């Protein structure tokens, strides 16, 4: 099959809408969130497609395949039993490099349109991807569908859009004529070509394989770089499906499919470290632990390294004119995907003397107990709890949850939930632990990222003390998100100042259906790139501008 | 004196023209190149102003001034005898940080307009700056005037323009409304603020203090960062004048003058190393040796580091249809400022069997001898030679020139020129040394940067061998410029491919009044940022995009 030009150029309108969206930052998405939007047969077909993959060898017809690897076990229980290509980089990387010249010559617009076709094909298979994401990340189905499907596709498209915009600010050609008084002007004909830097490596994560993988993957591909995808060993399938789709579209559009390839690994092999130091690798995108992110930044000096690492997210609670709204909003934020989001609040800073609210003054204990009750109410029904919490993604998260009780006084204990469809799934409600900022031993606990369904109700001396603790937390530990509840203009301004100075994204007084841990592509920035939690933001000009270089050729006219 | 809003907003038209220029890359500059354009009294006033500075203490009224430093001696002979503030960073850096909030709140447009006013004031004093540049860099007056004046101001304005553009792609505010079917839409009000990263450090160079200093200085300032300027100890005055002008304009526009400050140093003190590792320093711009550039990239991990380092520039000579034009163009490129430009060609790759030209076949020896004669003719008249060559900037350059004869067979010996105005100036014509690429011992000589008036006529087996040597040179040694002369489409294509793959800026068949070592702001890129000679290009989006972060605050609407 060959892709028609009409099919590709048909995506130009979407690209134009995306360009407009990142300019206005108004709401926009071409990818529907509702499962029903994908057609009546889509749910059954998606499930069947996913089931058919189980126990198979996922061949991608890649050069340099020297074996097969894969041992994914769903956090919901079932083994996937899928084998993926293991690579010999000495064969695959040169093959990927050979694919570059034609991709470079295609230019920014054609590259963008091919990327949009890849995303369109992924979008059409969103139900299949949803099951793949669910059974690797442990997300509940609806979240896997939305965050792993349309939201991830949005972030991919956003990256393509920024890449296109940044590459096209310099014209392809220019005629330059410099006046010389009475003499003839000096004249030059100039051409400007965007050229990728080399092979890009995407190192995927366990919890959001597509959402965190797509921005780097599409930013690098759209800027002319081949992309090697090294998925997390527990979350290979969503990215393997992505790679297969990309290779199909590339081949059908007349490009070398080796522009996108997969590198699976044997248990404990740690190929990310080896690949990251290869001289051919010029760009690395990574989501995961701070220790490996810092290692990459320090050692992979031949590459541009974009990292999203650990952070400690804070919500400062000063006052509110919607106490119930605040509690229910926070309860949802703490519960969603069992707190296994890099954006989930960890520390709730509450003045020990309590806070003024529309429901009267509330003491520290009242706020904590009311929040605990709110979480309890939200997750009281097991079906609803399962739909919100999903499953714990791995034993490390469970171990942290189990250890949380020792870190302070438990205000809300974690509860075990049964999942009738998947009896082996480890489903737990979040724990809330009371700690006191004035107790030095507590600090090491609440100022360390405790990834998973653990949050700390931190008693602070005052709102001023909370603002200073917030500043220190962002500066020293990093933060993907900051939230604050206050009716005081002065406090609002102080929190804003801290976020401006320490570079963190702030959500103020969320009491409705938007949550601090959710961001919308084309409008919200994910991370700031200016604090220790991440060295890049999704998505801005800086995320794409250094993935390519502009090469000028000038000739006398 | 207070700057009126009218004066500042008057620069908006210039900013708009600059925005248009970087979009079209057609010729444009608001800064006249001809000394006469600055008014009849400007030359005398400029000279007088420069002379009046000699032997004085250059006070900038900076906090944390703990002493005075300065020992500049003009490459033309005279001691400048000027003392500049030596800083206590523990006092100055906190003062600079305190200046940030108001500068951030001013927003991208006002920051740009203030930067344009600084540039306009510098422009008005171009004659004074020309003498300052001449007597620190050793450039001849006309070059010091043009490269140190309008061309440097152009590069500064270009950086401001990119900074403005990059900061304004995200709107200041956005209203976001997400449909929820039959329910009310989710609504948020969002604000987006560009915030600098912290204090920027500019480490100046000896040869082009303003031209190489302005891009980083203005890019950082325009993106909201205070800028600490650490000039080269031999070239303090041009940047001290710049800092004084900036501080005046900042104060008059109601900002803290400590947004721009100077750090002079005692001989051998090496304060760049200390300053570069201060936690307050978040951005570093550096032009100079590869060893210190690499050190900065490796050790100043808390900062974004932009470096321009050493490289080996190549001109590939394959064939020409304008032999005389080629020779005279190359002769000028080798002679200008005694080859002391980072863009001067070093290696001329010439097939050992000679080349076809419009004047018949020319053997390797004929090409070399004709080029030598062309340089000799160009510099035959001492007055013209002085005007083109300037003076050797420091004893290291002279030592390299003196040692060049040992590196191969001298095709054109260097000649000593007397400067009647400055008898102590060290003025030398360039040397051309014949080497053979097939002789392994030669390689270490011609593949090492030999900064100064030394070039190598490298005999190569064939044009194909030259193309491969060019590739290896760029990849391993870096290159700020590449030139080629060829009438063959195949060779042209091959050289272009190498430049695209190895990321180097190429000039083809220059035979007239444009030279491979000159680039024009708003149109030509200086360096590519994609090979070892520099990790950034002047100027593109990547040069500015990571100097600031965008902080979002979202509120329920």
TrEMBL record, chains A, B:
Q: Which GO BP annotation is one of this protein's?
A: L-proline catabolic process to L-glutamate
Q: Name one Pfam family in it.
A: Aldedh
**Gene Ontology MF: a single term:** L-glutamate gamma-semialdehyde dehydrogenase activity
Q: Which Gene3D superfamilies does this one have?
A: Aldehyde Dehydrogenase, Chain A, domain 1, Aldehyde Dehydrogenase, Chain A, domain 2
Residues of the Aldehyde dehydrogenase domain: 94-470
Gene Ontology cellular-component annotations: cytoplasmic side of plasma membrane
What UniProt keywords are attached to this protein's entry? NAD, Oxidoreductase
The record, for NCBIfam families, names: PaaN_2
This protein is called: Phenylacetic acid degradation protein PaaN
Look up and give the organism this protein is from.
Answer: Streptomyces tsukubensis (strain DSM 42081 / NBRC 108919 / NRRL 18488 / 9993)
Q: What is the lineage of its organism?
A: Bacteria, Bacillati, Actinomycetota, Actinomycetes, Kitasatosporales
